[in-house]
Specification:
Structural class: alpha/beta
Largest sheet: 9 strands, parallel
Helix content: 40-55%
Shape: globular
Bound molecules: magnesium ion
Number of helices: 10
Distance between the termini: 19 Å
CATH superfamily of the largest domain: Divalent-metal-dependent TIM barrel enzymes
Number of strands: 9
Order of helices and strands: HHEHEHEEHEHEHEHEHEH
Strand order of the largest sheet: 3-2-1-9-8-7-6-5-4
Length: 304
């Protein structure tokens, strides 16, 4: 609190003393607490296809100029790209954010061979993510269309939490996490709210199991603010960003692209991880659309 804020606060305190038995100290403490809450930062990150550029180096140059601080590569083939990515990020103010999926099989596969594919490829990606200092590997336990899948029963949920516990502990040993991504009922009906994913993360009982929110998939939430707070800093490890009508560049869907309710929660909780663009682009001028999108997010972040 600076001197001006203190004086303003003192005046409010004096006024409140005149009408209510609230102490000056309590009034100032409440004001200071309110200010303390807004400590989160908007760390913008891009998936590989977002920035214009003929190769990774050109894309990173563009990102750097725009003040983008995170890079989210896909998980497929990541183990073979660790050296390339480390080299490309050397001497740049950009770090690896999350890693987007890229494994084979799925964790709830009923066929042991497909489950085995998941276990092997996911662990390879998690190890590479750890080497790159990534915040975690994004995953969905099973899309609606992935079959044969274990039935959606209590027993399966218990099994999922047990399996995620093992995977999470492995991720911790590699210095990273696994991040559950809730979608919507058409894609993954049992994990369509940030709170669903946070509860599964909690019940997995591993520091290496986290969750995220994707502003595109969050269309089923009744409140963006409530959704992020349902995970809180204990579980919220990542955020994806897109326009809210066509999953395009933020701003390309006009008034629908209002992220302020969610941003307010991120700010209040002191969110310090990444917000990654995962979206298409309607405009033929990608550079202009991406730049406008970043500016829009920064101005909405400032407003809350
Ligand atoms: Mg996403």
């Amino acid at each position: 609190m600076n001197r001006k804020q203190f004086l303003q606060c003192s005046l409010v305190g004096v006024a409140s003393l005149a009408v209510a038995p609230m102490s000056l100290t309590a009034s100032c403490a409440a004001q200071a607490k309110k200010e303390e809450k807004k400590t989160g930062s908007l760390n913008i990150s891009f998936q590989e296809g977002i920035a214009p550029g003929a190769n990774l180096s050109e894309k990173l140059d563009f990102m750097e100029k725009l003040g983008v601080v995170g890079f989210e590569p896909g998980g497929r083939g990541l183990a073979g790209r660790v050296g390339e990515i480390k080299e490309a990020l050397k001497n740049r103010p950009i770090k690896v954010a999350a890693i987007c999926a890229g494994f084979d099989g799925f964790i709830l596969a009923d066929d042991p061979a497909i489950k085995e594919q998941f276990d092997t490829t996911m662990r390879e990606i998690v190890a590479a993510a750890g080497e790159l200092g990534s915040t975690g590997v994004v995953m969905v336990p099973a899309f609606n269309g992935q079959k044969p899948c274990k039935p959606h029963t209590q027993e399966t949920r218990d099994y999922l939490c047990e399996q995620l516990h093992e995977l999470g502990e492995y991720a911790v040993s590699q210095g990273t996490t696994v991040i559950l991504e809730p979608l919507n009922r058409k894609e993954c009906f049992y994990m369509r709210l940030v709170a669903d994913a946070a509860a599964i993360a909690r019940d997995s009982q591993s520091e290496g199991v986290k969750c995220m929110g994707d502003f595109w998939h969050m269309q089923e939430e009744t409140s963006d603010y409530g959704a992020f707070w349902s995970a809180g800093t204990k579980y919220l490890q990542h955020v994806h960003m897109a326009s809210r009508g066509r999953r395009s560049m933020p701003g390309e869907d006009g008034e629908k692209d209002d992220y302020r309710d969610g941003f307010r929660a991120l700010k209040e909780m002191g969110y310090d991880k990444y917000v990654t663009f995962e979206c298409g682009c309607q405009s033929e001028d990608r550079a202009a659309a991406v730049t406008a999108a970043v500016e829009l997010l920064r101005s909405q972040w400032e407003e809350v």
